[in-house]
Amino acid sequence: MEEKNYRHYIQILKEELVPAMGCTEPIALAYCASKCRDVLDDDIVKAKVKVSGNIIKNVKSVVVPNTGGLKGIPSSIGAGVVAGITENVLEVIAHVTDQQKKEMQQWLNRTPIEIIPIESEYALDICVELIGQNHRAKVRIAGFHTNIVYIEKDQEVLFQMGVVASTDQTLTDRSLLNIRDIYEFAKNVKIEEVQDILQRQIDYNYAIACEGLKNDWGAHIGQILLKTYGDDVKVKAKAYAAAGSDARMSGCEMPVIINSGSGNQGMTASLPVIVYAKEYHKSQEELYRALIVSNLCTIHQKTGIGRLSAYCGAVSAGIGAGCGIAYLLGGDYEALCHTMVNGLAIVSGIICDGAKPSCAGKIAASVDAGILGYYMYKNGCEFKDGEGLVLKGVENTIRNIGQLSREGMKETDKEIIKLMCR
């Protein structure tokens, strides 16, 4: 790889593999509210929250951690206002006392919150306005979960930047990603340059998966998989990824390392690879390199799709995990290409109907497709050019899926949101 691209790939991993506590859409709301509270610096008497449909969809049914089991947009706002530590960003409500949980409920009981759905060109769009006794403030996040693009106090604009411009300035260009360079980068990267972020992903995500398998979380998808199908490595790979989601979607307060703005995607991209590495007694370096493949393959797919969509992000991560497993077991560039295309051909129709316990089931199905895609390749089988959305060349198929989800599923997304909110 060119030195410039090598550096960009390292930076992409650093930008994407960051910790978050709780489902990232409620946490983005809490972060926005916490920042707005800081700007306001006044006793709050009312709140107005403008949100895009995908925020409504992804906040409606998921438990906001550290709130005592509360769900929904008002709870996310209340958590950020009462207990948010803004500088902690996606861990903004990671440190909440029992007293603050009581104060949240009191604040929600006395503070009117107006929720205004908006039509936005950005799937992720949040604007929190807090009205105090003497002042008012407004903060907007758009494009991705921590991207503050507007700050206002008492009708004076304190900060403003276009969403595209701020994204370009904040994030490294993802269009540089491709499967061939991902493979070469994983083979040749100096491990010491990425070891810390990858080890943190292993530690955090494996811990919450174990919690999901051990205790009473969600719909128990991880536990059911192991109970029903046994402990074959293919089953365990699905079970651990699903169990992490079981816990996280139901309010578990353990942090995870996300991928493409999503904890579910971060767990799905990493846990199956970790399970396979343990099963096959792979070295830590072999695991790190395989995780590079799985994470970057996930990010590559998500680049064409967007952070939020009607297309289930677990699919991208499950196929990414399949590619990571293929690499871990000695697969070359061709193995990655065929695993990617085969997996996408199987499950690219799964929709996203918000964050909630059933995400764990979709994760299990997506990981299964990624693994099957690899074993199809191992047995000399493949889905071929012209069959459905599959095109000759892995990058062409990835582009097809991106267009399907980004453009073709816009109306699907609107209908999903309408059905969820009726």
Automatic annotation (TrEMBL):
Ranges for domain Serine dehydratase-like alpha subunit: 89-417
Keywords: Lyase
HAMAP family to which the protein is assigned, alphabetical: UPF0597 (MF_01845)
GO molecular function: L-serine ammonia-lyase activity
Family: Belongs to the UPF0597 family.
Lyase in keyword set: yes
Record's keyword annotation contains Lyase: yes
Species lineage: Bacteria, Bacillati, Bacillota, Erysipelotrichia, Erysipelotrichales
Name recorded for this polypeptide: UPF0597 protein QUV98_01635
Source species, domain of life: Bacteria
